[in-house]
Structures are given as structure tokens and as C-alpha cells.
Automatic annotation (TrEMBL):
Official protein name in the record: F-box domain-containing protein
Superkingdom of the source species: Eukaryota
PANTHER family linked to this entry: F-BOX DOMAIN CONTAINING PROTEIN, EXPRESSED, IM:7136021-RELATED
SUPFAM superfamilies registered for this protein in UniProt: RNI-like
Amino acid sequence: MWSPFFRPCSLLGLEQRVACYVWLQHALFPPTMSFAPSELQKEIATLSSEIEAQKAILDDLIGRRSRAQRNLNAVLDPMARLPLELQSKIFLHCLCFDDDEEKNEDEDERASRPNSKLAPMVFSNVCQLWRDIALCTPELWTHLRMEGSPRGSNHFQLYEIWLERSRPLPVSLTLASTSILAEGVKHAIDRSARRVEEFSLLLSAGPRGRGDRMPRLPFQSLKRLVIVVGDQIPFYYVHHWIDLMRMSPGLLHCTFVAKFSHLDDTNGGKSDCFTLAALKELRLKERPSVFPVKVNPTKLLRYITLPALERLHIHCSITADSVSDFSAFILRSSPPLRSLAIESITAISTPIAEYLSAVPTLQTLTLATSDWVSVVERLATDPAFLPNLEHLTCTPRRTRSRGDFEIVICMLEVRSLRTFRLNDVFPIPFGGSSVAPDEDILVELRGIRYGGGIDIYVGDGKRNLV
């Protein structure tokens, strides 16, 4: 069909040219409808309300789907059928707590390191229900191990979140640090200091072995304190930890473990003697060292008075000075001591039997010294010596003879003990360091065991010869 549009422009008239221009305008730029602003605002409001209505419908569908999925999980998963309180208890049992300090005193196994693959953080990665249960169970977040050195400063925000989830319960902190404590970590500890009931400090030497930068952290509610000191920490810095004990009037248990070969008490006089009226258990342990021992952990007894002490464990090199410190401490404190363990890592030359007479309340006695025979002999000859003793454990540090076993028999015949253990006794001579008990000795011990009702153990840890 012929159209004037395709004719050369020179052959078109004026009217045809105008008509062609109008036609092009309508073809390329179609006209828009014009509306009043009020009408547009009304249309926008209508569309917005419809969108909100659709969103509500979508949210309702998502909720119904979640409930259906939850019901399906309840049918297929026995865990989902349990009450929330019981699931919280199960989560608590997933935490690896270990209260036995003898297994590893350098590590507090009850403290959890922040790890997304371990409890309690792993619960947050399973499903929303488990995450809600974990966040609503503050008991899961009450134990925390913190890296206090500057390399752990990047985690201080995580430490604060962890401690915040434990509110309002008391917390147990383990701080592994050098002598320099990161400011962010110190801030996280300070915020929860009033709720700290258990605090373990695993301290290693900082630059040049300095320990004077370790801040004093007052814990008003502290009940249990464990301090494990690394090498080359001078003794005069121990007054920081003594001050920590001084600022914890409610302290009940205290453990101090260190290598004391490098220690020097030059400035030890900075800490005056003070009283902890509530402390019931004290453990002082010296870690083995290849260097000559200069200072004994029993020197800590010079600075404290413990009138309520019930359990005392001393594991160190027992010397004349340490026995003197122990005696002065007992006379000064007059504690109702019921359990005493003295383990000497070296031969002891000073008899300790005379100093034990100052603790007549003693019920459990553990001796790992070379002077154990003098204590047993005193028990056999003096009825007024440790009259309340019920449990006696001896681990000899020297060669035993037949006379030693005869003294033991005499003691067991006159004393009303409940248990008696004599360790490191081998059925045959072992390495020339021990004497095996004769058969007649064993017969007498068996008679006392079955006739007197005393639980007697004489053996090497694997076999009871009695």
C-alpha cells in the first residue's frame, strides 16, 4: 500500500509534512496519561496496604511451615520430644569438667575455650531450637578459659559476650597469661569480678622473667584460687598473689604450684602476715626442677594465718626451715586440721613427729617422707599423740627393714585406725632399694586386718600383699 511517508520530502506539501511529523511523534513518544497528585498518592497507599497484607499472609505461611517442621521433628527425633529443661541438663553433661587436680595441675579442665566445634558454642550451630536453649541456659557459660597475653586481645569481645551469657550466675575463670595482661582481657575480667567464685592463674614468665606488671584483680566473691607459676618468676612478686588472697576474704580453697629453684625472697617482707578466716583447704606444691632449690613453698606459711583450715597438702623439699615454718604456722593459726599430707621430694633430716603433736584434731595423715617410721613409732608408744587419727598412709622414701614392719604391727595393735596404707612395698627386693616383708609379718598383718577390722594395704600399687 502506498503511503505518503515514503515519498521524497520535496514532493510533499506543507499539510502532508505536518501530518508526517505528528505521526512520528505519536509513534516514537506515545503520550502519557496525566493524573492528579492526590490520585497517585491514593493508588500508592492502596498498593502498600496490599503488599502488607501479602506479607502478613507470607509470615503466617512461614510460621505454619515452621510449626509443621517442628511437629515432624518431634515425630522423627526423640530429642525434640523432651522438655526444654531436660534438654538443658543434657547440654550441661556435654561439658568436659574434671575436678581432679592431680591429673593435670597446669590445666584447668573445667574451663572451656571458645571454640565453635566444642560445647557450648557448637549447640548454636545445630538449629534455632538448640541455639535458643543454649542461650537460655546460663550454666553453660559459667566456665571460661581466657588467654590473657596480648595475642589473646582479639578475643576479648568474645570473652565479654561469653561472660554476659552467664548472668546472673557466679563464674569460674582460668587465665593463661604471661606477666603482661592485655587491656581488653583485663576489662572483660573487671566487668565480671564481682561474680567470680573460682579463679585459676596459669602464669608464665614474661619478658626477662618479670612478673611486676601482673595487675591485681580483686574478686570479692572468690571461693577457690589456683595459681600455677612458670619458671623464672622472682619470689618477691608473689606479694601480688598474696594481696589477691588478702582481697578475697571468703576464700575457701587455695592451690599454689610452682618451680621454686629460681625464687628469691629478697623483698618478701612487703607482705605482712594476714588472716583468712574462711580458708579450709591449702595446697602447696613444688614442681620438680634440675636447678638447686633456694626457696621452699612453705615460706608462704609465714604470711598467712588460717584459723579455719581443715586440709593442708605440702609437696616440696622438706627442710629444717620448712618444718619450722610449718610449726610456727600451726601454733599461730591453731586450726581444726583434719587432713594433712606431707610429701617430700628429697630426703628429710628433721624429724616431724614432734611438730604433729600440735594438731590433735588430725583424722587423716599422709606421709611421703624418709621420717615416716618415727611418726609410726610415736603413734605406737604415745596414746596422746594424734588421738583422733583414723586414716594413715605412708610412702617411704628410704630402704625399709624388718624392724620397720614390726613397728607398724605394734602401732596397728594399739591404735583404732580405719585404714592403713604402706605404699611402694614390692613382693621381692626391687633394685636393692626395698626389703620385701617376710611371710610371718604378712601373717600378722592379715590377722590384724581380719580380726581388728582395719583396712590394711601393703603393696606396690598393683597388688596388696596382705
